[in-house]
């Protein structure tokens, strides 16, 4: 594989990500992201990256970042399609473009779509957060990345894995048994973050509270303030769904399939609109969203 690394983009817990150029067998130049395991990283990291490769080979979906392959050159390197808009986390930090609520809802639908696919493959992500959601196509397309934590959930899950603030209470309890519903919890927190444009539990972090103390509070029911979300006042149903997603009891959380059905039906109402019209029509659309959803709720979609 002919790859030239151009510049460093950033780093994660077990490696560095570079922007690179991949010259394909047909001599085409493709911009890629190359994730390399750092020298001096331990055996666990190598196990994780090998696990990520195995997981990625199985996963092909429009809302999951495309994996082109891997090579070893001193270190193991993974090649992915390149996201020129960065992550959802980067967007929320810099906000260099204006994104309407409708476009944000579309992001959350795409995220749920990718997660539903993952769950249909009987796998659980375990580290869903804004850093692991990449944006493409002028901020319109969202794809899930970072599959080092992905695992089949046919077996009993007990590993303590994830990110403080996004981790479901059951992941950190004594027996630590959890299912794919831990991703639904993280999805709820991520949804809130996108609309509140704040980092979850940031006020506690700013008070220098220990991360484990923050997680302890979450395990005892602490949640972000739902009213921090900048969403049309009438969109109580959207808020109700988020609250269901981060319910203490995993069984009360909706499946990703239900979330896709809910948001998908709503979004069909306003996707045909021009994006230029959205600023004016957004509130009206969201009210329509609630009406339609309320009707659906009475019927098949019972959250
Ligand atoms: N395909 C990609 N295209 C462009 N940037 C990427 C791509 N994949 C990752 N990045 C960026 O590289 C940086 C590091 O990503 P990485 O997935 O290694 O770590 P992380 O998710 O930030 O942290 P951790 O793995 O510890 O949870 C992030 O800024 C991320 O947005």
UniProtKB/TrEMBL annotation:
<comment type="similarity">
    <text>Belongs to the protein kinase superfamily. STE Ser/Thr protein kinase family. MAP kinase kinase kinase subfamily.</text>
</comment>
<keyword id="KW-0808">Transferase</keyword>
<dbReference type="GO" id="GO:0005524">
    <property type="term" value="F:ATP binding"/>
</dbReference>
<dbReference type="InterPro" id="IPR000719">
    <property type="entry name" value="Prot_kinase_dom"/>
</dbReference>
<dbReference type="GO" id="GO:0004709">
    <property type="term" value="F:MAP kinase kinase kinase activity"/>
</dbReference>
<dbReference type="GO" id="GO:0043123">
    <property type="term" value="P:positive regulation of canonical NF-kappaB signal transduction"/>
</dbReference>
<feature type="binding site">
    <location>
        <position position="35"/>
    </location>
    <ligand>
        <name>ATP</name>
    </ligand>
</feature>
<keyword id="KW-0067">ATP-binding</keyword>
<dbReference type="InterPro" id="IPR001245">
    <property type="entry name" value="Ser-Thr/Tyr_kinase_cat_dom"/>
</dbReference>
<dbReference type="InterPro" id="IPR011009">
    <property type="entry name" value="Kinase-like_dom_sf"/>
</dbReference>
<keyword id="KW-0723">Serine/threonine-protein kinase</keyword>
<dbReference type="GO" id="GO:0007254">
    <property type="term" value="P:JNK cascade"/>
</dbReference>
<dbReference type="InterPro" id="IPR017441">
    <property type="entry name" value="Protein_kinase_ATP_BS"/>
</dbReference>
<feature type="domain" description="Protein kinase">
    <location>
        <begin position="3"/>
        <end position="271"/>
    </location>
</feature>
<dbReference type="Pfam" id="PF07714">
    <property type="entry name" value="PK_Tyr_Ser-Thr"/>
</dbReference>
<keyword id="KW-0418">Kinase</keyword>
<dbReference type="GO" id="GO:0006955">
    <property type="term" value="P:immune response"/>
</dbReference>
<keyword id="KW-0547">Nucleotide-binding</keyword>
<protein>
    <submittedName>
        <fullName>Mitogen-activated protein kinase kinase kinase 7-like</fullName>
    </submittedName>
</protein>
């Amino acid at each position: 594989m002919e790859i030239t690394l151009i510049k460093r983009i950033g780093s994660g817990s077990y490696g560095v990500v570079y922007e690179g150029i991949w010259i394909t067998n047909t001599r085409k130049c493709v911009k890629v992201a190359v994730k390399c395991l750092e020298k001096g990283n331990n055996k666990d990291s190598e196990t994780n990256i090998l696990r990520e490769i195995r997981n990625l080979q199985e996963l092909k979906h429009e809302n999951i970042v495309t994996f082109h392959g891997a090579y070893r050159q001193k270190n193991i390197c993974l090649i992915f399609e390149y996201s020129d808009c960065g992550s959802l986390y980067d967007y929320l930090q810099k906000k260099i473009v204006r994104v309407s609520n409708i476009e944000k809802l579309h992001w959350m639908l795409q995220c749920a779509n990718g997660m539903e696919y993952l769950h249909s493959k009987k796998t659980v992500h375990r580290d869903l957060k804004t850093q692991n959601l990449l944006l493409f196509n002028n901020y319109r397309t969202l794809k899930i990345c970072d599959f080092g934590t992905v695992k089949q959930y046919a077996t009993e899950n007990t590993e303590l894995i994830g990110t403080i603030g996004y981790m479901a209470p059951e992941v950190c309890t004594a027996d630590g048994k959890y299912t794919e519903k831990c991703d639904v919890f993280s999805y709820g927190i991520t949804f809130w973050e996108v609309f509140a444009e704040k980092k979850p539990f940031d006020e506690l972090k700013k008070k220098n509270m220990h991360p484990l103390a923050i997680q302890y509070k979450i395990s005892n029911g602490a949640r972000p303030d739902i009213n921090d979300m900048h969403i049309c006042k009438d969109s109580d149903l959207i808020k109700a769904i988020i609250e269901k997603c981060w319910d203490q009891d995993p069984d009360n959380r909706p499946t990703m399939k239900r979330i896709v059905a809910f948001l998908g039906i709503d979004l069909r109402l306003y996707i045909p609109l021009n994006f230029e019209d959205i600023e004016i029509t957004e509130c009206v659309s969201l009210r329509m969203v609630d009406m339609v959803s309320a009707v659906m709720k009475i019927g098949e979609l019972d959250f």
